[in-house]
Structures are given as structure tokens and as C-alpha cells.
Batch of 3 targets.
Target 1
Amino acid sequence: MEKVRFWRGREFPKGSHLVRSTGIGIGFYGNSETSDGVSQLSSALLHANHTLSTIDHLVLETVERLGEAVRTELTTLEEVLEPRTELVAAARGAQLQAEVVAQQLQGLAFWQGVPLSPLQVAEDVSFMEEYRWLAYVLLLLLELLVCLFTLLGLAKQSKWLVIVMTVMSLLVLVLSWGSMGLEAATAVGLSDFCSNPDPYILNLTQEETGLSSDILSYYFLCNQAVSNPFQQRLSLSQRALASIHSQLLGMERGAVRQFPSAQKPLLSLEETLNVTEGNFHQLVALLHCRGLHKDYGAALRGLCEDALEGLLFLLLFSLLSAGALATALCSLPQAWALFPPSDDYDDTDDDDPFNPQESKRFVQWQSSI
């Protein structure tokens, strides 16, 4: 009687392998989308950190320049112009205005001394995302290898390979169910957060930084309903700088011819004033809500669009993977029953004269004759 052959897993459901292959492709796409979203979040945080650091640096540089000008050039001018009381009064007025500018500018570095650092947050997010991405890549590759070696074991009718792949399938099934639960919980929490993120982030940032709600609302909302909390300081600084400029112009007209030694400190003061005005205009642009609010919007888009979309694809991958693995594990006993008693049995040919079974039948036939 001709034996029944199990050839290339004919009795094993092919649909489960198709579902697993589709799920693996979806998993790679979802992992890439999630990584892109988190990278966009990190980039937005780094850009915001650069803006805040630049504001602090400009304020510190300008205050130091003005303090140096008050201690050196303006003090020298008072000594040089001492014979003319009106010019001394102008120099003292410029000194007072420079101190006003320095005092007002110091209040513009609102992020200075804040314990929450966007740079540190970006580094932590990138660190966790790197290991998350690597873990999912390893899981996807593991499932791909299990799928390929399971098909190979069925095609070769190798019992030991099928046993090993059955154990590995159980492990991958547990990992798939675990990742699916984690992804579902994260997707639900992230979707709730993305439905209305502004109040939550505003309250959390205020709690972590201790900044006033006016400043945070100005940058997080950035609309006409919220006024610039630094407008008064900027206006006072601008008027003080204009006053210093006019006073220096008056001293230059009335003192250079009579006091030639006053020309050098006046030129130095004009240079300091030009640098201060340039830094002031940069501060006005950086302190406007457009830049930081753009970074805030980019971070939300990366988190609530790309990352959430990728997370949903990963959830679909875990669901397909778990279903396909469960189906494959239930079908493996049926395939096992169709295996021959020995792995080498299928490799022999009934018509081969060197086949031990064929030689035994030949001897029996000779004795019967």
C-alpha cells in the first residue's frame, strides 16, 4: 500500500502564514511611523530649548555690557565733563537709563533657573524611543524567523524543528499579547490627551516650572485674547534706550570740541548702545509667541498624529500576530499526525534496490519461489 506523504505543509493552514506576513509588514510600518513622530517631538523640544537658551544668553550679554559701560565709560565721562554740570547731568541720566534697561531686561529671561529643561526631556524621550524601536524590531524579526523556520520544518518534515518552533511560537504569542495590552493602554491614554492637550500641558508645566499662567498661556495659546506679558518691560526698555541715545548725542555735540578726551568713551558707549539695540530687537523677535508656539504645535503633531498613527498600526500588528500564532499552534497537532515515524523515511524511494525495505521484500519473494 502506498504511504501517505505530507508535502510542504499541505495540511497546515496557509492563511495563518499570510496573516502573519501581513502583520509583520504592518508592524514595520507602524514602528517606523511611531519613531518618526517621537523624533519630531524631540526636534521640537530641542528647537524650543535653543530659543530659550538664546534669550538667556542675549539678556546676560546685554546686562553685562550695560554694567560695564556704567562702571567705566559713563564714570569716566562724569570725571571728564565735571566742569560742565549740564553734561555731567546728561551722563548721570544716561547711567540711570542704562540701569533701567538692565533691570527690565533681566525680567525677560523667564526660563532662567527653571528646573525643567526641554533639552533633558528631549534626551530622555530619545533614549526611551531608541530602546522601544529596537525592541519592536527584534520582536518583528523573531516572528519572521519563527514563521520561516516553521514552514521549513513542515516542508522538511523535521519533528525537532517543529517542536522548537512551537515553543518559540508560544513565546512570541505571549509577547504579542503583552505588547497588544501595552499598546492599547498607551493608545487610549494618548488619544484622551490629544483630544484637548492645552489645559493638561499648561497645568503640568506650571506645576513643574513655577511660572505664571500669563506667560504659559501666552506661548501655549498664542492668540489675540492673550496679551504679551513682557510688553511693558519691552516698552520701558525701548524708551530708555532712546533716551540714552539722545543723551549721548547731546554730549557728543557739546563736549567733543571742548573735551577731546571724552571722544573715546563716547565712541565706546555708542558701540555698546548699537550692540544693545541689536540684542534688544532679537529679544523682541524671540519673545514673541510665534516661535515657541510653532515648536509646541510641531511637538503635538508628532505625538498626536504620527506617533499615534504608528501606535495604532502596532496594535493591529499585535492583534494579527496573536491571532495567526494561536491558529498555527492549534493546527500544528494535525500536521504532526501526518508526519512519518522517521524523518529519513520520506527521503527513501520504494523502487530503490538498495532500500532496506525493498531488499527484505526481495528476499521474501525468493524464498516463496
Target 2
Amino acid sequence: MSETTDRISAIRKVLVIKRWLGIWKWRNEDYKWSMIKRIYPYLLYLPFTFTYTALMWVEVIRSQGVEEAGNVLYMALTEFVMIIKVINIWYRRQEAFQYIDELERDEVYKLQNKEENHFWKREQKIFQRIFYTYITGCVMVALTGYFSVFYQETYELPFSYYVPFDWRTPKFYFYAWTYNVLAMTMCFLPNCLLDTMGCYFMFHIALLYRLMNRRLLALREAPEVKAIPELRHLFQLHKRVRSLTKQCEILVSPYVVSQVVLSALIICFSLYRVVQMGKSNTGGLATTLQFVGVMIVQIFLPCYYGNELTVSANQLTNSVFNTNWLEYSVTTRKILNCYMEFLKRPVKLRAGMFFEIGLPIFMKTINNAYSFLALLINLSK
């Protein structure tokens, strides 16, 4: 039964898209295509993503006043975070690939019965729905920005950047708009897919901890003869999952640090743009408000899944206590006691050396964004 269960079904399609977007390792890198596959990401990102982000920062530097800079800065900071994510996955491409490959293929994570299969499939589908909704939200922000400019009385770009020619003419506007659309598409798609991947790393580890909790609770009425082999397997599984947790921290730490540290400023400048824009630019207002909503979700999701990982791991102590340990022999009870002492060390993901990934840091980020916005509004008066 377990052989038919796709253990990474929630991100199977995401991996395919990421390969074609140049942010995931190809499974079979034969000699004939290996060189093309290595240079393909650079050919894809240098003319669009990296150049486009650089042009945004040129526009920020050339801006005259806080209001003009704010119209570009919120997106320039977003793209800067996205570049950090792309460079991180390029740098750790082999580790990330092996990480997912182990979760998918290693027999130690094999599901044991029909109930576990049903539980696993259900949770994978829930994750899939959440992130398909998130990706759809990102697409809607981009599409609103792309096409709302056609309803403006003057020539405007969907997302401001420095254009080295006069684009406010019927002849040249199409070129500036087309590059804007292509470059922004090559920015937001990798961004939301890398968010999906980072959250999936944490989600899958949390799911393994929840699976161990279920197996421990299943021993509530089990005799010692049946429980000992299962406990031995659980101890081995826990050791592997703790190791995976450390690997997960290494993989997601750079992107979570950059996302959380700069998100307060991104939300601040986005809302400041809304305040300054008023109702004069309906399309830009709708795009920015949608962007703020997506950005809040983007911060919330890694914090939520990091928190879920910690909570699921910490529940193991209660699950061990709820086994049928009173009926076990002294030797088995001593082993369980040692295991519970080991579980006293909390499992927490840290983003670098700065903070723990969890819901408290999300609330702090939102509070910082509000404080920065109030300060910016006061300074502009």
C-alpha cells in the first residue's frame, strides 16, 4: 500500500516548473546536455531578473524625494530578497536535491498502513491547496499590474524601473512595457515557487514528527512484545528526522532572514504608496493593495510552518507518556525515561543567529512595518 503513495505529491508539479525556471537541479544530467543545463539559469536570469532589479535600484537612486523613491523601493526590496533566494538555491542546489530525494525515496520514512497513507495524502493535499492559492494570488497581482496601466490617461509602466530611453511615446512604450512584463514574470514566479519550497521543507519535517506522534499513540494498548520493535524503529526515525531538521535550517535560514528583515520595510513603503496615491490611480491602488496582502501571507507562511514544526516535535513527550509504559518491564521503562530526557531539548528552527522561525517573529514584523509607516508619514509632513 505504501509503495503507491507519493510522499512529496504536494510539490511534484512545483519541482517540474522549477527545473524549467532554472532553480532546481535536473535529475539526469547526462554529458550531452549537462553544459546547457548549467548555463541555462544564467541565460534566463541575467537579462531579465538581475538586470531588471538593477534598473529598479538605478531608478531609486535617481528619484527626487521620498514619495518618488517609495513608488519603486517597495518592489526593488522585494526583488532583492528574491535574488537572495535564487542565489541560495543555486549555491545549495545539491543539498536541496538530496534532501528532497531522501524524503521521497528513503525506506526509513515508509508509511506502514492504510491509515498513515490516508493521513499523509490528506495533509499533502491541504498544503497543495494553500500554496496553489498563494501562487494564484501572486499571479493576480502581476496581471492586475500588467493590464491596469492601459486604463490610465497617461503612459505608465506596471512596475517602475529605469528605462534608458524616452518610453512615454506610442512608439517606444510597447518595448518598455514588454520588457517590464517579461522581467517581472521572471521575478515573481521564482519568488513564490521558492517560498513554496522553503515552506515545504518545514512542513514535511513537521509532518514526520506528527507521524511519530501517531505511532506512539497507537502503542497505547499495545503489549510490550509488540511495542519494543516499534519503539526501536521510532528511535531510529527520530534520529534521522532530527538530522533532517538541521539540514532544513541550513536550507531555509538565508531566505527567511532576508524575507523577515526586509518585509517590514517592503510593507511600509507599499502602504506609504497607497496613502500617497489615494484614489487618483485605481489600477495602481488595486495592484499595491493586493501586493500588500500577498506580502503579509508571504511572511506568515514560513513563520507558521516553522511554528508547526516546533509544536509537533514538542508533542512527542506527551505521546511517549501516553503509551502503555506502566505495563512495560523496568528495562523498557528506563529506555523510555532516557528518551523523554532527550526530548527535553526543544526543536526550534533558527534563521541564522538572529531569531527563531515562528509566529512571534511574524507579529513583530507586522508591528515594525506599522511603526516604520507612522514614522515615514510624520517625516513627509
Target 3
Amino acid sequence: MASASEQIPSPPTYRFRPTKRELVEFYLLPRARGQDPFPGVIFEDDAAGSTLPWDLFERHGVGSEDEAYFIVRGSEAKKPGARQDRGCDGGVGTWKMQSSLEKCLRVRGKRIKIHVSNLNLHMGKGKNSGSVGWVMHEYTIAAPPCPSPVKICHIAFSGHGRKRMRVPDGQ
């Protein structure tokens, strides 16, 4: 699969950094309605929330990047408020919920309620576990109801955490 930079030409210093409102208005709402006005800008990967980030980035050709956006459809687009902690690659790592909130945005005159979840990637077991510096922000539409469940995952390496490593040893 071609990376976003190969599909849509952009200047070498361009960074894709949409605001929450832009993510909802131009990417999340159209995808929930079955449209894709900007193909190739956000990767589609239904396993984005259950895959180790470095494997996910390599799969989409952005292995050297520190952040990327993914569209998740179907079974992973859980109802807002559902338990969000989930294992990665057979329990090697776990995305753990840090915070969750609902916000209301006005998009083109309509009130849209979005659910935002923040998760950290933890590796290891017991006292040897801890955050390795990867974060995921998930955006879903809570209201009005959408015909197709979908979420956007913004996954980034923050460098914060007890065991911060872009790719932990042995991975």
C-alpha cells in the first residue's frame, strides 16, 4: 500500500496536523457517511488499535515517522464509554486508557458530539511494566447516530514514559 506522501504531493516540510474540528468535519463525518473526500491522507486499517505502533507504521510505509492517522471501521469502532484497554499482538503490549471525554462541536451549523479517548502503550508485566512513550487519541462520533461506525486514531510517539523507546528491545 502506498503511503500518503506518495499518493498526494506536498512540500517536503509539510506536516499533517488537523485540529479536532478539522478531523471531525473533513475526515470523520464524511467517512461515517461512506465518503472519502481526501483519499490517501488518512490510512485505513481496522487493526490500528490492536497492533504495535512500529509494526503498523511499517505496514503503511511510514516507519520513520513519529505520528500517523488511521481510520478504523467495523468491530473496533466500539460504543463510546466501552472499555478501551486492549492487547496488541497477542498480549505483547497493551493500550491502556488514560482519559475519556465527550465534547460538543458545531460543524456547519450542526451540533456534533464526539467522544475522545486517550490511551498509552504499556509493555511488560507487573512491576516491569510501564508506558513506552506511544500515545493514541481516538475520535468517534457519539451523536447524532451515524450509518457506519468509524473512528480516527491519531498514534504518536511522545517520548514520555518510564520505558520510553520508539521501538523497545526485542521488537
